[in-house]
């Protein structure tokens, strides 16, 4: 009960900061722009070419389900990572900068307990943010093209292709995909959280996280590294796309998330060690 009360207080503090809401506003604007682009003739031409080239009916698979999938795959890793790094990089470093940590640690709470509460709050923010983007993106797409139609999934890089012609299985796969993205994005928040525990400014924690993420993405796309792409963090984070395969390969997905879970635990422990060694009295 004490943990839940402290977690509720931490979440209230996290959502009281204006920068926590910047991501919500940015994604709503982006979703609106994507829907406008898809509604425009050039956007429809691209989708028609993609769908009909694979032998399917454009009028049926050009749907809110397909547009929502495209929003999720194009935007979350690039735009979402900025806001996850911003919030998680701020959560400890900003409190130190404001001088609050000395007061907090004067209370009967261990440093481990304090970090567990802050890390849990950041993980909840990350996961719920992804769900918000999925739901708001789908509702926005429905308002423009309606709810009818099937789901068309084509992701050449991860070698995933699938079509769902009924709403029930299609929306279930979209829901599973959103859960998968939410779990994947926690790795970005974990990395930023680790840097936030160091003796650095909040902005530096955010920039370091994004720098590592983008270097990983760039190197992964080099032809020389193509045989080793499975060892890149961003490739593992993209394994949520496998949840759209007609026959889900749970061992493959479990392996990816065990890998990411191990990384998250390592980032937390490194952050904890750095935090334990810091002197907050001076």
- What are the secondary-structure elements, in order, as H or E? HHHHHHHHEEHHHH
So what's the overall shape? elongated
Distance from N terminus to C terminus (CA atoms, Å) equals: 33 Å
Largest sheet: 2 strands, antiparallel
% residues in beta strands: under 5%
Number of helices: 12
Name the average pLDDT. 87
From the alpha carbons, calculate the radius of gyration and give it in angstroms.
21 Å
Unreliable segments of 5+ consecutive residues: none
Protein name: ABC transporter permease
Pfam families: ABC2_membrane_4
Organism: Haloferula helveola
Keywords: Membrane, Transmembrane, Transmembrane helix
What can you see in these coordinates?
With 282 residues, the chain is mainly α. The protein is 74% helix and 4% strand. The protein contains 12 helices and 2 strands. The protein has helices at 2-15, 18-39, 41-53, 58-61, 64-90, 93-98, 100-105, 111-145, 167-196, 202-220, 233-237, 250-276, and strands at 151-155, 160-164. The chain has a two-stranded antiparallel sheet with strand order 1-2. Strand 1 (151-155) and strand 2 form a beta hairpin. Helix 2 runs parallel beside helix 8 (111-145), helix 5 (64-90) runs antiparallel to helix 8 (111-145) and helix 8 packs across helix 12. The longest helix is centred in the middle third of the chain and has 35 residues, at 111-145. The radius of gyration is 21 Å and the shape is elongated. The model has no long low-confidence stretch (mean pLDDT 87).
Short note summarizing the structure:
The protein is mainly alpha-helical and 282 residues long.
């Amino acid at each position: 009960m004490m943990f839940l009360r402290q977690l509720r207080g931490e979440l209230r503090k996290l959502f009281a900061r204006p920068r926590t809401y910047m991501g919500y506003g940015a994604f709503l604007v982006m979703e609106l722009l994507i829907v406008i682009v898809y509604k425009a003739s050039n956007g429809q031409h691209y989708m028609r070419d993609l769908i009909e080239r694979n032998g399917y009916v454009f009028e049926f698979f050009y749907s809110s389900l397909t547009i929502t999938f495209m929003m999720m795959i194009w935007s979350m890793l690039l735009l979402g990572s900025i806001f996850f790094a911003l919030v998680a990089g701020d959560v400890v470093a900003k409190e130190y900068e404001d001088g609050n940590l000395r007061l907090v640690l004067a209370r009967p709470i261990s440093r481990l307990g304090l970090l567990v509460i802050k890390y849990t709050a950041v993980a909840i923010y990350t996961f719920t943010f992804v769900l918000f983007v999925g739901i708001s993106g789908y509702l926005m797409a429905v308002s423009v093209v309606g709810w009818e139609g099937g789901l068309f999934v084509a992701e050449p890089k991860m070698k995933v292709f699938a079509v769902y012609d009924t709403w029930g299985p299609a929306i279930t796969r979209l829901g599973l995909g959103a859960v998968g993205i939410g779990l994947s994005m926690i790795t970005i928040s974990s990395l930023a959280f680790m840097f936030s525990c160091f003796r650095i400014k909040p902005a530096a924690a955010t920039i370091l996280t994004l720098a590592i993420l983008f270097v990983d993405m760039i190197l992964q796309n080099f032809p020389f590294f193509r045989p080793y792409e499975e060892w890149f963090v961003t490739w593992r984070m993209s394994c949520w796309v496998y949840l759209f395969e007609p026959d889900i390969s749970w061992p493959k997905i479990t392996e990816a998330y065990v890998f990411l879970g191990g990384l998250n635990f390592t980032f937390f422990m490194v952050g904890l060690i750095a935090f334990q060694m810091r002197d907050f009295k001076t």
